[in-house]
Specification:
CATH superfamily of the largest domain: NAD(P)-binding Rossmann-like Domain
Number of domains: 2
Number of strands: 12
CATH architecture of the largest domain: 3-Layer(aba) Sandwich
Order of helices and strands: HHEEEHEHEHHEHEEHHEEEHEHHHH
Radius of gyration: 21 Å
Strand order of the largest sheet: 9-8-7-6-10-11-12
Number of helices: 14
Shape: globular
Bound molecules: nicotinamide-adenine-dinucleotide
Helix content: 40-55%
CATH class of the largest domain: Alpha Beta
Length: about 425
């Protein structure tokens, strides 16, 4: 992850944890267990490059906590990967799996490399080398990796193939994010966006708002946003604009049409990175506004579903007073300063690690199906996803109401409490 100089994501994750640990009055032993990863692996991956020379890449796997089940979390390829980023992400995975109550813990992995400068054969070498180093400590019953930044289904299949060669058998439950037909789950591509709208639907019900009487403004037009918009509009909601990144101009634009954008129309002029063709959009009657315009629209719902750090102490005060709900599809879109603004304005926030947990929940379903070698129909997957997300939402909102907590704090309390309890029940503390 590229990060600001001096910013340490692991320290931030620990600070967030400490705040909730104080609230829960956790004992010292439990705090020590949960503040730090249980296990960390760092290793060399020698790869023979296309020019015949050997290059050594640095790889990591961090297993933050597995009291509730096998660790789960992606593998990132990034030139600026650091062990502290991997540690923080592993901890956040523990809380995410816990808040939606799936029987998994948190893990994360990475390799310091830039796939842009590597051939497919060299990337295959990294994947196979990565799993050779840790084949003994990952597996369907211990730690289940997945795709993440700059890794995809192909990388997962290389890792799986090498693991199966080492262990001599078929173990599709080792890894998720596999293509449908080779152990992947139907419904995975819809899962995060739909999951976001399942919890949004419940929030609106709780606020006494009918989806068909609401409007939304969305940042992002990639995997999460596209499926969120599709389902939200099917519920009757109106999306009036989307904001996305323009590769060519190296800036973002907001595309607006009233009374509502037309999803099919925009999908027809969108590239595979979720960027919309500006000129074609104008031809279709869209207003093309500056990137930040999505923030200041008079809508009921804001859906940040692009990147982190968008709702800040500077931007949050500029959002319309009409906004009642912020549904966080992206990871980390809101800073603590913006949280203060939302708290004060009584905006109902659906926090990222609850609101975008549809993806990991469906990955859990993939793992279950892979272990059984029996695959469900799409409707079954999405039905089960709805049940999980709805129930997770109500758990969090009920606690928030009872204890008068901000939604993000309530979600952390539930997640951390469940893991703490599992550690206690196992006799670790
Ligand atoms: P994506 O790559 O498919 O789409 C990203 C979108 O964001 C694109 O439309 C891009 O144009 C837009 N974007 C990028 N920079 C922008 C900027 N500065 N201003 C406006 N728009 C910008 O990614 P995705 O899979 O949809 O993920 C979006 C967010 O959701 C990320 O924060 C990701 O970590 C999080 N998330 C995704 C999943 C998943 O299953 N895909 C699961 C959990 C969380």
């Amino acid at each position: 992850m590229s990060q600001a100089k001096g910013f340490n994501p692991f320290e931030m994750a620990q600070k967030q944890f400490d705040k909730v640990a104080d609230l829960l009055e956790l004992d010292t032993g439990t705090r020590e267990i949960l503040r730090n990863p249980m296990r960390e692996y760092a290793f060399n991956i020698p790869v023979r490059m296309d020019d015949g020379k050997v290059k050594v890449f640095r790889g990591f796997r961090v297993q933050h906590n597995d009291a509730r089940g096998p660790c789960k979390g992606g593998i990132r390829f990034h030139p600026q990967e650091t062990v502290d980023t991997v540690r923080a992400l592993a901890m956040w995975m523990t809380w995410k799996c816990s808040v939606v109550d799936i029987p998994l813990g948190g893990g994360k992995g990475g390799v310091i490399c830039d796939p842009h400068n590597l051939s497919a054969r060299e990337q295959e070498g990294i994947c196979r080398g990565w799993v050779r180093q840790i084949a003994k400590v990952v597996g369907p019953l211990s730690d289940v990796p997945a795709p993440d930044v700059m890794t995809n289904a192909q990388h997962m299949l290389w890792i799986l193939d090498e693991y199966e060669a080492i262990h001599g058998g078929h173990y599709p439950g080792l890894i998720t994010g596999k293509p449908v037909g080779l152990g992947g789950s139907l419904g995975r591509k819809e899962a995060t966006g739909y999951g976001l709208v399942f919890v949004l639907r419940e929030a609106l019900r709780e606020l006494g708002m009918k989806p068909e009487n609401t409007s939304a403004s969305v940042q992002g037009f990639g995997n999460v946003a596209q499926f969120a918009i599709e389902l939200y509009q099917r519920l009757g909601g109106r999306v009036i604009c989307v904001s996305c990144w323009d590769q060519k101009d190296q800036t973002s634009y907001t595309f607006k049409k009233e009374p509502a954008i037309k999803l099919e129309e925009l999908l027809g002029i969108t590239d595979r990175f979720g960027g919309i063709d500006k000129e074609k959009a104008k031809d279709l009657g869209y207003q093309v506004l500056p990137g930040e315009a999505w923030l200041t629209q008079d809508v009921d719902i804001l859906m940040p579903a692009a990147i982190e750090n968008q709702l800040t102490g500077e931007t949050a005060p500029r959002i319309s007073r009409k906004v009642r709900v912020v549904a966080e599809g992206a990871n980390g879109p809101t800073t603590p300063e913006a949280d203060e603004v939302f708290r004060e304005r009584n905006v109902f926030v659906l926090p990222d690690f609850l609101a975008n947990a549809g993806g990991v929940t469906c990955s859990y379903f993939e793992q279950v199906q892979s272990n059984m070698n029996y695959f469900w129909e799409k409707d079954e997957v999405l039905g089960k996803l709805d049940v999980k997300m709805t129930s997770a939402f109500h758990g969090v909102s009920e606690l928030a109401r009872q204890k008068k907590l901000y939604m993000r704090d309530a979600a952390y309390v539930i997640a951390i409490n469940r893991v703490a309890q599992a550690c206690k029940d196992r006799g670790w503390v």
